[in-house]
Amino acid sequence: MPPKQNTYPPLDRPKQIAENVWIVDSGPLMAMGIIPLPVRMTIVRLADGSLWVHSPTQFFAMLHRQMDALGRISHFVAPNSAHWTFLEEWQGRVPDAATWAAPGLKDRTQVKRSSVRLDHELDRDAKTPWADEIEQIFVDGGGGFCEVCFFHRPSGTLILTDLVQNMEPSKLSLPGRILGRIAGVTAPEGRAPVYLRGVIKQKGEAPRNAARRLVALAPERVVFAHGAWFEQDATARLTTSLDWLL
Question: Is 7 inside a domain boundary?
């Protein structure tokens, strides 16, 4: 399999998808040693001209320069317990940017053993610097899991992380397609991996209410970290992808 299969070129460069919103496709990372997992960063330019960076991907000097051309990086966001591993190098290159982390991330053993810096924990009640532009929805699960979802109101863009994964079978090897189907993450109706669904369902009504709130936002597009994001019919497709929770 070619090393860049199951990715979305051009890689490691900002691609505009809405006014003041860009994605950066990268990867792949290997999941379960078999599935090449594409990864995606989302960038929002706030009203003050600074950049809000969700789930940073691998650092590249050229990518950094391209982002600098869009605005000054002010905020890095680690939206759940898995999407923080590339933060440390970005922090070394952009030391003045604040890092915001999902609840509980700072308590993870791997995080404690790393040198990553978590400046602020995303709070359900406290007002963030971007509150007037980006709404936050918390999806909790068992074992301390929490994914923070973000809705950029000016563009109608919903930004998820692992709550939806949508792997295109044509981009996967046969073993990858089989595992993807078992996990329930294959396009066109990808969902959260089956293990994550189990973790989230442990919290009962709270994540169901969060899912209803996400659908009620009626997003124009839904971006997430892994797979083909929802460019069209976003609300309907989101409803299908969250049917296990709704």
Answer: no
